[in-house]
Amino acid sequence: MRKPIAFPHVEGQASRQAHTALPPGTYERELGKEGFFGPATHMYHRHPPTGWSAWEGPLRPRAFDLAKLNSAEDSPWDAPVVLSNASVSLRFWRAPETMDHLARNADGDQLLFVHQGAGDLFCDYGRLAFRAGDYIVLPRSTMWRLECREPVSALLIEATNGGYQLPDKGLVGPHAIFDPAMLEMPAIDEAFLAQQSEESWRVRIKRRGAVSTVTYPFNPLDAVGWKGDLAPVRINVADIRPLMSHRYHLPPSAHTTFVGNRFVVCTFVPRPFESDPDALKVPFFHNNDDYDEVIFYHAGDFFSRDNIHPGMMTYHPCGFTHGPHPKALTKMFEQSKPATDEYAVMIDTRDALEVGELPAGVEWDGYVDSWKAAAE
Ligand SMILES: [Fe+2]
After folding, report:
1. pLDDT value for 376
2. Region for 265 from its dihedrals, namely left if φ exceeds 0, alpha if ψ lies in -120 to 50, beta otherwise
3. Ligand 1 centroid to 128 CA: how many Å?
């Protein structure tokens, strides 16, 4: 039998209800374990905890402008790996207009987040139309290809040696945030049947990071039907109905969309700001002490971040405190806008991530200094 060492305790000046009614002139910091689910303390500081004046050494917040990755790769397996560890890998891919081969990932379930563009996915299971803002979960070893009607760029999130599940929605029940009935599946439709042919097709299979090519003298996407409970599924960010409280700034974990093995994928979508005068209106400062945090900015105006535009990715490794940028901080308790206008994908990983090799200019070297005005 194991039990956490738990002892809610109030010391000095503190709010008893997190994220509300902060002691005057203070900045709240959450020190939390287990990705906002474990033991936590809220600390009330005289200065913003991001008010560092110098930073040396290998640990640091990083930001990447993936919009600057211009090279289109025919194969998703040639797209650059931005961040990875043993459980997850993140690539950013500019897809060609039409793939001349099929892709198959034998290393794990593949999540595609469509950042830009639209088209059709053809796979073992049929045809699935897609557009910007779609998540498409492709079960491990599904054969697939894209036909793009508009230029497509996508974030590829591989659940290495694992798969994706939906989060337990607990108190709010299974139909909240999105109803699983909203998930769409590929169809064996006319367009799918029309692409079946006796022409030769190659399948580029990724296994243990290495790619093998298998050639068929026909198109192996030749199913005429299927039945079962394993198939790709699609959901758009516009179909996500976020949880919110007008009196309490909910933690990012309330926005969990998919759960992988040792990582989660969360989605931030527009939602009304908290209206209670005592409630914090911006994310609280925090160190998420067991997780590395990644955010990919998809669309909109990122209310807690200065100088961030769509296509950028920030990486906050475990070990330091972060929170709102200076411009947002001035609005800690102000109601300046009725709602957020942002779409972003967050990937929180239980294990440390490695940064991949990226072309010069993709990383924003000054990101560590981007909170500096807070100390002035
Ligand atoms: Fe964070």
Report:
1. 41
2. beta
3. 34
Rounded to an integer, what distance in angstroms lies between the CA atom of residue 249 and that of residue 369?
26
The mean pLDDT value for 202-220 works out to 98
Tokens 């908290």, residue located: 274
Confidence check: pLDDT of 374 > 70:
no
Among 56-70, 103-117, 296-310, the least confident range: 296-310
Q: Per residue in 306-351, pLDDT tens?
A: 789 999 999 999 999 999 888 888 777 777 788 888 999 999 999 9
- On whether the CB atoms of residues 138 and 234 are closer than 8 A, the answer is no
Cα–Cα distance for residue pair 67/131, rounded to 1 Å: 18
In this predicted structure, what is the pLDDT of residue 35?
Answer: 87
The pTM assigned to this predicted structure is 0.95
Kindly give the distance from the C-alpha atom of residue 328 to the centroid of ligand 1, in angstroms, as a whole number: 15
Distance 280 CA to ligand 1 centre (A): 16
Ligand 1 center–CA 286 separation, angstroms: 6
Separation of CA 40 and ligand 1 centre (Å): 14
Q: Please state the φ and ψ torsions of residue 149, each to the nearest 5 degrees.
A: -85, -25
Half-sphere exposure of 9 (CA within 13 A, CB side): 6
**Count of positions (residues) in the chain:** 376
* Strand ranges for 208-338 from DSSP E: 210-216, 233-236, 256-259, 263-268, 285-288, 292-301, 312-316
Helix (H, G, I), strand (E, B) or coil at 172: helix
Q: Which residues contact 256 (CB under 8 A, 6 or more apart)?
A: 167, 264, 265, 266
Residue 324 alpha carbon to ligand 1 centre in Å? 10
> How far apart are the CA of 17 and the centre of ligand 1, in A?
20
